[in-house]
Write a structure and sequence with these properties.
This protein is of the alpha+beta class and 758 residues long. It is built from 21 helices and 33 strands. It is an enzyme of class 3 (hydrolase).
Length: 758
């Protein structure tokens, strides 16, 4: 009886426990059904998230063009390769979706990727042996793969090999206006693993206009089943991307190319520490060309010597180019009489002040007029104008009126303003001839627009317009802006006459700066360089330790172009009677200005042109015989290279009607293309060839080609791989020096061996 009683009691307890558990579970289900939540998580939202797949629609970054629509920067589609190594991806599928045979995969990928087969095999085997690995990547070898290479790999139908499209920012002209355009690169915030990589501007216009250029990504989302198939009612949502706006610059690709090439020639011959050049339209404020050396290739911004755009970011003591503003201030203030005489040579305002000396060691030229003093670039004349005739405070007012105390406001990032050093009497005097106080080239150019433009000082700018690429609508159009009028029209005309005398008179320091067909007005500068050693104050000594410069405008009476050139510490060959440093500076100025003025169809003002053709318009040559094309191009004075040994022309590197400058290489493609000898070519010319033949080109380094991957004379087929190694003139010179040292060492060893033998 006790046993039955116990059994019944236990059964009752179990029944109660079961009923309670049932009620709890049932209640839980009823609650979940009613509320649709578990632990605060909405089951409906969770289910949608599990069923929904989405991916980003990348916005295309805006392109950068020159003034005439030549593309300077754009997004180039490339691919990143990865391999699926998890067998689970192939379950219940007829065709395997993971890597099945790593040896075969590595053998077939290696030649297409120009990669080490053992490296690829090791990566694949490591992934297959790692149970946690789902997929693997291949480092830099698997990135930046071209469309053509991807298609070749796809054709192999290798299981498990897949690709992700990635845009890279590409600059088709290589080391071209790099400090203006800058560069952009892919970034991925390290503190946010889920953040998507995007292209961000790092320098130049890419940085300045980053928000407008990058646009806004879109997305696609839809619901799918467990096999990743879209449902019949997928609730698909499509948000189209908003592509970035296109930016058109004021620079002209032809003139910029000419400037880049001339700077490279000077870099090779004179090996200066620094160079800067700016070409401007003084009637509008537009920057037509701007470049610095050292420069860099934005496609491969590694080992960059100089990140700074020296034209706007590196203030320095400019030297005698400032004298045009000293004379302008004296004339405008009404105290200047050019025929008045003064004693040149040396000038000292008191015994406690260091005397000012003219550049010929303080010898001077005797008693001369102030007009002649300008032509001779007399420091004494400038000092007397400021200290005795005009007064230091009046001169300071004009310096500020010319905006030397503020930034130019150019639409580029990283501008640094110079400083007017004007506290002590000596500083006030030396500022008159460009020593002590500092300025940037763009500040000087901005101030000089007032002289070239009849007193009206203009805002310099480099962005011409911003365009919506989808509609073609001009969002923003930059126009000429007058920002000051420091001098009158009459004063500007008188200063221009003085500038002409500084180039064309018998006493001119700028006698090298002559153009064949155009009159030039300008002012040279020879600026001392402060000693960088804190323990040695003062300036560097030595005949080459200067910044040599020139600011010139042409035609002199009504300037259409204005150019500033500075060359720091070049290796020089001095000539008696000519201002030191004018050789490299004049080579740059004369070549660029003469050709640019003709290219822009500016009428010569020095009689009839003595040059037959400066900028040649290319006729339609396609379909004609190679011999007749050679004859035509030779007659119009075009530098050309024939690609191949065929008899018929099938393509050109420029379109019909394009104007080609004398130093620009025109490529003529024949019906039997062969590889030309491209040693010595610039990267720009190599890329022209690459575009014509659809070559997969891989440049290593900057400057000019020293080795090429395809032998000259070999048959050249579309899509071929071309590797080229390039060196800058500075690197070539260093190689030459090392080679000479090696040869000398070898000769010394041989002599020593011979002596030992004897």
């Amino acid at each position: 009886m006790n046993k039955n009683r116990t059994t019944h009691a236990m059964a009752g307890v179990l029944m109660v426990v079961f009923i309670m558990a049932f009620l709890i579970v049932t209640g839980r289900f009823l609650y979940i059904q009613a509320s649709g939540e578990v632990d605060g998580v909405s089951l409906d939202e969770w289910a949608k998230k599990v069923r929904t797949t989405s991916y980003t629609l990348d916005a295309e970054r805006g392109k950068i063009y020159d003034k005439n629509g030549m593309m300077l920067a754009y997004d180039m589609p490339t691919f990143r390769m990865y391999a699926i190594v998890d067998e689970a991806y192939s379950e219940n599928l007829e065709e395997p979706q993971h890597v099945v045979d790593p040896v075969e995969t590595a053998d077939k990928l290696a030649p297409l990727l120009n990669a080490d087969r053992d490296y690829l095999l090791e990566r694949l085997n490591n992934g297959l042996s790692n149970e946690k690995a789902k997929q693997i990547e291949f480092g830099t070898i698997g990135k930046g793969i071209s469309i053509q290479t991807k298609e070749e790999i796809d054709a192999l139908k290798l299981p498990g090999i897949n690709f992700v499209r990635e845009n890279i920012r590409y600059y088709p002209n290589g080391m071209f206006a790099s400090h203006i355009i800058g560069f952009a690169r892919e970034t991925n915030p390290e503190d946010d693993e889920e953040a998507e990589a995007e292209i961000e501007g790092v320098a130049g216009i890419e940085r300045e206009m980053n928000e407008l250029l990058k646009g806004k990504n879109g997305f696609i989302s839809y619901q799918r089943d467990i096999y990743n198939k879209k449902l019949l009612k997928p609730n698909e949502i499509i948000q189209l991307p908003d592509n970035g706006d296109d930016v058109y610059l004021t620079i002209d690709q032809k003139i910029q190319t000419l400037l880049e090439d001339v700077l490279s020639q000077v870099d090779e011959k004179y090996a200066p520490e620094r160079m800067t050049a700016i070409v401007m339209n003084p009637k509008t404020g537009e920057i037509i060309a701007m470049s610095n050396r050292p420069s860099y290739n934005p496609n491969n911004p590694a080992n960059v010597e100089n990140w700074y755009n020296d034209a706007i970011s590196t203030p320095f003591e400019p030297g005698s180019t400032i004298k045009m503003f000293t004379w302008a201030a004296a004339i405008e203030s009404g105290v200047y009489k050019g025929s008045d005489k003064y004693k040149s040579g040396q000038y000292q305002i008191s015994n406690n002040i260091t005397p000012v000396k003219d550049f010929n060691g303080g010898k001077g030229w005797g008693v001369i007029s102030y007009d002649e003093g300008f032509a001779r670039s007399s420091n004494v004349a400038a000092s007397k104008l400021v200290w005795e005739i005009m007064g230091p405070e009046t001169f300071l007012e004009y310096l500020k009126a010319f905006d030397f105390d503020k930034p130019s406001g150019i639409d580029l990032p990283g501008e640094v303003t110079g400083q007017i050093l004007y506290n002590w009497p000596l500083e006030k005097i030396t500022t008159s001839f460009g020593q002590g106080s500092t300025a940037t080239p763009i500040q000087i150019m901005k101030a000089a627009t007032a002289i070239a433009n009849d007193g009206k000082m203009l805002q310099p700018y480099i962005i011409d317009k911003i365009v919506d690429p989808d509609t073609g609508t001009i969002i923003e159009n930059h126009e000429t802006t007058v920002v000051g009028e420091p001098i009158s029209k009459e004063t500007a005309q008188q200063v221009r006459e003085l500038l002409v005398s500084a180039v064309q008179s018998e006493q001119a320091t700028g006698s090298r700066f002559h153009l064949e067909d155009y009159s030039v007005g300008g002012k040279t500068g020879t600026a001392q360089i402060p000693n960088p050693n804190p323990g040695q104050p003062g300036y560097l000594t030595g005949s080459e330790n200067y910044v040599f410069s020139f600011l010139g405008m042409a035609p002199a009476d009504d300037p259409e172009l204005m150019m500033y050139v500075s060359v720091k510490q070049p290796t020089l060959e001095f000539e008696s009677g000519i201002e030191p440093g004018s050789a490299p500076v004049s080579f740059i100025f004369n070549n660029v200005m003469e050709n640019a003025l003709h290219y822009l169809n500016i009428d010569p003002d020095r009689g009839e042109s003595t040059t037959n053709v400066i900028a040649s318009e290319i006729p339609n040559l396609v379909g004609k015989s190679v011999s007749s094309v050679k004859e035509t191009l030779t007659k119009i004075g075009v530098n050309y290279t024939v690609i191949g040994s065929g008899n018929k022309v099938v393509g050109m590197s420029v379109e019909e009607g394009t104007k080609v400058l004398p130093n620009e290489r025109l490529l003529i493609l024949t019906d039997h293309p062969t590889m030309p000898d491209i040693v010595g070519w610039s990267l720009r010319d190599v890329l022209k060839l690459s575009e014509m033949m659809d070559l997969e080109t891989e440049p290593i380094g900057n400057g000019f080609v020293i080795t090429q991957g395809i032998e000259p004379g070999s048959d050249l087929s579309k899509g071929a791989y071309l590797g080229v190694e390039l060196k800058t003139p500075k690197e070539l010179k260093e190689m030459e020096i090392k080679g000479d040292e090696s040869s000398e060492a070898q000769e010394a060893e041989e002599e020593e061996s011979a002596d030992s033998f004897e």
